[in-house]
Design brief:
Number of strands: 12
Shape: globular
Distance between the termini: 30 Å
Order of helices and strands: EHEEHEEHEHEHEHEHEHEEHHHHHHH
CATH topology of the largest domain: Rossmann fold
Radius of gyration: 23 Å
Strand content: 5-15%
Largest sheet: 6 strands, mixed
Number of helices: 15
CATH superfamily of the largest domain: Response regulator
Helix content: 40-55%
CATH architecture of the largest domain: 3-Layer(aba) Sandwich
Length: 380
């Protein structure tokens, strides 16, 4: 039996990091299996001369779905907006991602929230679902603005900018906003600048996709949801491998949990009226890579420990020690996903005294071990 021929039906002409990462994950798995892979975004279209494939991974169009059914070729969909609902889907759990963004912004003491998304975007709808549901459980509502999905011409660009600037001008800061992709998050930062709304002093912004070009190389840097799209590609390839071996199609979509929120300048704020609590929060999160103790947080804050503890519980509903643990665990999560460092090194860099304490506290807060979290979110 020769090498399996696998088609990757994803367009790479546009350098979209999401597409590139999915393809990367699929190709790495294919190389491990000795597959012969071919990138052809138009598999199934009448004009395409793709020939025969043993299996296909792609953004499933109507044409690709029809071709797969007609030729009885196993196919795995990786496109949340796909019109096809019959072929197996591997995608990010956007509802869970929306929940993470709500927790990230809600934990900053904010009470006003907004969501910026694109019209007719299934991923954006799912993000909003998780975002709104989580904040509703905390007693908050979400102000929603949907804008055109395509801004590649002057008219659509104007249709985006005008409502965006009106929306920003209508806010009652401080406010926390989730944008359904990083391009919209950057447009939102620009609209805030034009309106004299300060980022992050007046608005904390979180994007989606963690596109470094947009998030890390312009000011202000933008906090963003890291979805782990390479894991989507790899898991899709694993599923396709099983289908080509004759295994049954799964009965429901395979949704992979997001990796977390990568925190940057755009959400670096705490909307807390009590100055002592705000100062304590700043000390905790600025020092989350250090081995913090409550006594070290108190340094420079002109109040007693007993008073600060009481204020902390009144404002946030948790203790200073609880917040220190949360900060250390969040630092550890980011290191587990973004680096290949050993658990011992991660424990030290995240402010834990030793690996045993790290493992115990992490499991208590995250519900699974550091090793399991890394495998689940980083694909390692």
């Amino acid at each position: 039996m020769g090498a399996r021929r696998v088609g990757i039906a994803i367009d790479l002409d546009w350098p979209i990091p999401h597409h590139q990462s999915v393809v990367s994950g699929a190709l790495k798995y294919g190389r491990e299996k000795g597959w012969s892979c071919e990138i052809d975004p138009f598999i199934g279209f009448p004009v395409a001369a793709s020939g025969r494939f043993d299996g296909v991974i792609g953004r499933v169009t109507r044409e690709l779905a029809s071709w797969a059914a007609r030729t009885r070729t196993p196919a795995v969909n990786v496109w949340t907006n796909s019109p096809n609902r019959k072929l197996p889907l591997v995608a990010v759990d956007y509802v869970a991602a929306g929940r993470l963004a709500a927790e990230h912004l809600g934990d900053r003491g904010l009470r006003n929230f907004g969501f910026l998304g694109r019209e007719n975007d299934a991923g954006a709808r799912l993000l909003l679902n998780g975002f709104r549901r989580t904040l509703s459980a905390r007693g908050f509502s979400v102000d929603v603005l949907h804008v055109p999905g395509d801004t590649q011409d002057v008219e659509s660009w104007i249709r985006l900018q005008r409502p965006l600037r009106r929306w920003v001008s209508s806010w009652r800061p401080p406010i926390g906003v989730l944008a359904s992709d990083d391009i919209l998050a950057r447009h939102l930062c620009n609209a805030c600048q034009h309106a004299g709304v300060r980022v992050p002093d007046d608005v904390a912004i979180v994007g989606s996709g963690n596109t470094l070009l947009l998030c890390d190389l312009l000011e202000p840097t933008i906090s963003s949801l890291e979805h782990g799209y390479e894991r989507v590609g790899r898991r899709a390839a694993e599923l396709l491998d099983a289908l080509m071996d004759g295994q049954d199609t799964p009965g429901k979509p395979l949704l992979l949990p997001p990796s977390g929120v990568v925190s940057r300048r755009s959400s670096d704020m705490f909307a807390v009226d009590d100055p002592s609590v705000a100062a304590a929060l700043r000390a905790i999160w600025d020092g989350r890579g250090l081995s913090l103790k409550v006594s070290s947080v108190l340094q420079g804050i002109p109040t007693s420990r007993r008073t600060l503890e009481r204020r902390f519980r009144e404002v946030l509903g948790r203790t200073i020690h609880d917040e220190i643990r949360r900060a250390h665990v969040e630092q550890a999560k980011q290191l587990l996903v973004e680096t290949r460092e050993s658990l011992k090194v991660v424990a030290t860099r995240a402010g834990f005294s030793d690996p045993a304490q790290f493992s115990r506290v992490f499991r208590s807060c995250a519900g699974l071990t550091p090793q399991s979290y890394r495998r689940l979110h980083a694909g390692r």
